[in-house]
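1st attempt posting a full record on here, be nice pls
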Amino acid sequence: PLYTDIQGTHELRRPSYREYFILFDSQSGLKDICTTTDAFGTRQVNCVYQLVMNARMGVIDMIQPTEIVGIYTQCAGKSGYATVCGPRYSVLEYGQALSIQPTLLPKENGTEIDRLELLPLEQARVLDSRGLKGKSATEKEDITSLLLKPSHVATEGGVTDDFIRFGVRAWSKYADQPIERGGRLRIYFKPLTVWKLSRRSLCRATCVPAKGLSCDDGRGGTQADCAIAPLVDTPFENLVPMQRNTIELSYPQNMDEIPAWRSDEAHLLEITEMQLPRQGFFQTMMLAQYTDPWGESPSAVFVKPVMARVPVPGTTTGRIVVDGQSGNGVRPFVFDKRNILIVRLTMGVTLQSPPPPVMYDENETIIPSTMPRPTVEIILPPDYTCSVVGNGTADPDGTSDIFTRDLDQDGYIDNPMGTVFSGSWSAVGGICSFTLQTYASLYAGQIFYVRLSVDNPRKTLLRNDPTNMWFVNLVALNRTVLGGPVPFVSLEEEKLYPGWVGNLAVLMPLEGESMQPTNLSAGGNNTLNIFFQAVHGMPNNSYLVVDSPDGFDFSEDCSVGHVDEAYYKDWDALAWGTDMTGPEAMTSSLGGILNCTTDNWKRSVLAPVPTANFTRARIRVGRTLISGKFYAFTIGVLNPEKWNIEHHDNWRLWVQDPQGYMVDGSKYTIQFNGARVDTLPIYPHDRSWAIYSEPMRLPLRFDFGVDRLIPTSVFQMNTKLTVYPLTPTSDGELVAVRVTAPVGYNWLPTAVDGWNGEIPGVTCSVCKLYVTPVVKFFNELVLDGLVMRMNRSYGFTVRLQVPDRPPTRSSNVFYLEMGYNPGDFNLDRMQAAMIVPPPLRVIHDASVFSLCNRAGYGDNILEFHLHIGSMLGVNEGFLFAGDELTRGTNLECWPETIAGTRMSTDNAVCSVFNHIVSRLPLVALYLINGTAQAGKYAFRFEKVRNALRPASQGGYWNFGTFRDLHMYPKHKTIDKDKNIPAPKVLGWLVNTSLLAPGEFEAPGFGRDNAPLHDNLLSFYFIVNQHPVFPPSVTHLTIALRGPLGFVFEENCMRGLKVFGYEAVPSLNKSTGRGWQCSPETYRQQSWCPTVIQPWPDNLEPSACQGIGNTAKISVPNVVMLERVAPKGVRVPRFDDNTAFGFLIKVRNPPVQSPDRSMWSLDFGDEAGVPFPTFTVMTFEESSTKLAITSVVQVQPLFQLPSDQYKPFRLDFVPFTLVPAPRMVRFGGRRLQGGVAPLGPDAEEGVIVLDSAMDFKFRMGDYNLCLGTTLEEHGRRPWELDKLFGASDVQCRVSGSEMQINFTLVNAKAIFSGQKYTIIGSIRNPETVSPRYLPAETWQLRSFKRFVATDQTIRMDKIILRGIKTLAPASKWIVDNTAGEYTGSTRAARVSVTMQFAERLRNGDSILISAPANYDLRSPRGDLSCADFSWPLPYIPLVNSPLP
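the predicted structure (as tokens):
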């Protein structure tokens, strides 16, 4: 609106003006100091703000400077209220925008500009002097709208800028009034706030004349004056540099003006590189002004062609606020509706919405415009549905801290909440659009926020999924776009913006989560048992995140471990290869837990790390997680002091990938009762567990009447449980009692004698519980509305059904809770207790191992493994009974007992016989004296003959323990028996074996035979007849069994490759050099047993499942593929009598495998003969020992350098010969004198000893070992031939003094099986080892180098247990008070005095080591110390046992 001040009395009418107001919210005003990053680095500068207004100018004279605009900063606020800066409307600063020159009119007969072309120099040079008019119509169309692209890119100070060179041609309006010598051009680059042409004021321009004319500048050149200036001139240019957005050009002074007859021509001005803006702009017409040489007679014209610029990456951006417990919104799961998000958009280009052109029809009626208006589109990934909440205000309730943070504490909010209202939001599918209303604008650099509500996709979407891309698309009038949709910030860019992300993960809900505590008391230290089923397979180094409600504390020292071993056992006798996933799959541990860190899950990403109230534990897992498999672990937590109803919620478990991105999680709070998993309890106390005021006041007993429980199914008899005593905390208050049994136990209060509210003869006459028990989910017994009196003991009996197995997916414990439901009256949560039930009398963790499954094979090894629940006595033992498919299996006594109490002819009877009726095999093993403890047993039968005919399926052996086995068949059950699957008897596989490349070739194929190393082993097999299975069998199995100690990865596909040609790229094919014994390389590889043919195409392995020392490899069934293949297309198959090979990664055992350790391989319905394993190359473990005389840290300030080194000794026995280059080979001759020459097969051996971190070997000049010797063990001083002298070995120190190398240089070798000793000096670290970490390890290795080719291979290796460095004792005195110094004589009294620098804690040990050959043992021959006693009357460790 137009305003006019009220004129006073006798005063002339005041001028009219417009007023514009910008109101800033608190902490969102204009700064005076800003931080900028440019080629000069990051620095603080004065802030510059620009207001660009379109105005129609009148006449301005220059008698005095005229104020065009007045700018005021004022205090705002409500009328009548004071503000922080003073009264309302009080002025803080005032500034004037003055005209710096008058307005001018063109002179009569002066030159006026008619046309100006501004083109990239490369395009301008292509044109002739007529410019675009010299081009054809078709050629002109290509340049009518110019998209500016850089001609040069430069990086300075870490900032990359685009540059462009321009060419300018200008034409006058009249032929007789040409562009003059010295005439001035000024080009205004729009948008004005976007262009920053240069940081310097000068530029370089060259005039290129039209043909036949001159551009002489009067100085012997063709230069045109060029300057780059800001549109807004200011006297404070040195302090506040304004952006330079205009170019001022002057034509050369002696230039030839264009003749009138050539008026359609123009000279070309070539301008050096100008900086292109980082922000973009849609089609824009630049403005040019021409004045005469004296700066007068102005005329203006729009520049041709119109220009556009695509913004550089990073100027148009989108981000999403990290929100919700998972950081992916409040509803992050698949199928979730209304996931509320806050999105931040930065405009990289200005959008303007001018009024549409007015159109009339034939009746002169205005036709409504259908031209699409400018829009901002937010494009979501596929399957999302997008909508805008309300008017788009990002935080209408003011609940998000993102809009209140001031982390740099500069007094200004870091993210002022900006909302756009100059248009309307709409949504279609996965696109939310903001359409600008007429006259509205969104400017480049503008930031605004919008609140979205999205419906998540129906499938999991990971953060790093290439399809998980969010885009912002800026669309101008009539759907014009620049460069297309721009993705939100990338995962890498997110690191620069903590608290923001560029996309969201859509999570799959975890399954099977349950959690049970071991301590329900307020304020107590607690250990939680947590169980869950993995939904997605996860690689090593993934994370598990456990969240707790407020009040619980995982503490800074997060403690994570494994549940009891029984949870990880097989209780269902699962067949091999079926125990990984599925309804009966075994539960697994988390393997190697790498670390655990803690945080508070409600903490903002940008808030400081908490020092208390750790409600989030983040566990890094050192194993793969398999989809569908159950896992269990424990974690320590400190219980809160008071109960809160919210404790029954907000227990969550999340799964993150190794990069920390969420993958799966708990959609609802983790259930307390495992039977309620996958339900949605209505009442809070039925969800997660929570604390109670105290534990049971009296020791609670659950009496089952026996010490071990027999399952109800054995004799169809339920069990009576007596619970006593119960004593309330308060008097006469209604009490709700809940007893939760382990999953599988079923309460039977309605059975005969199923419930009694008192215990006859135990509880008092008035201490009866009058209640009707209610059973929920079979394992919850609810006694509601009880009235009990204080100081009285109550109890009850109830019957229950005992399961065949304990739970392994929730805790095997009973919980009794008094006051579990506070109800509407907020009653007291009194007491609670956890009771572990007696063990079950059940055979479990049982399996049948068969080394070879070939029919009729007579040298097989059969092992029976089982765990028994009861101790065995005389005439009690094991009965193993085969079924019909084991008929013909021939076993013989005695089996070797490889686990459990040894059973032999001394204490037991072994009988192998056939059933009297069925003639099926039976094996009885029972005691005739002594006992056998409950626990793990394993029996190995050798020389077993398999059944003579192949079977169509595997059989079973029934395992059981019985009493009175000497009276068979009148024996009686002890533990519930179980049918254990036996491997299927198969046909003949022609040949199977392990490829054995030469020792120098093997490393090239990935072979590494060191202990505990990953090894790539290559196997081959020859098919007798190609396997034929019905199409219903989709996959065939290759079963690979290795000796005990070898371990395959659970998902062994990553380390599996088959040999063959690569028709299409495949991750599971080894081609070329990696294909051992191929048709091309067979003749060059002398160790190849046969030619390995290419693996059939389309039959590559589809899965590999590692199960300990066995691997199950799945390949497609060719019959099934033939069924679906096009007619006439032959599907390759495993041809008869043809060799096929593969390599697979396996972890070697820690020690050498026992003799007769064998591998075996089955394929389809054929089995091969077992074949021997390789030798794990390690030093002999029992004889290789490291001894360091001192465990005390070094103290450089108190010790001389020579005193800092202490002796160490290493005894070792190599398994592999360490050769010397001049050693006498078999059949060779020793020289009588001098040094033997090197033979063509000379090999140089090296022994390498690596110390733990910061332990340093003593080193002399030239890195030579100082005071270190290598000798045969037990060498006497005069036996010099057993000492490796300087002519035999060269010893050097390397690796920051933490490695010594003994290189054999002459004829003396280190022989296999012989014991050697290294004696030297070591300097301990200067720091004390942390208590909570194990001692770091040393390692000993041997190498040999083939001298002729310089190829080196490692041979033996062993990891040695190191020591933990300790602080020196304050006092340590050993006094031979008896004065006995005669050798081999017992000293009657030795006094030891010690004082430690640190206090001793429970569990610490004091270890006293005497020098070699001193004997501290008691003469009684036991493990006690000789005549040990504390000096009376002082006994320092009164509660510790004698040593």
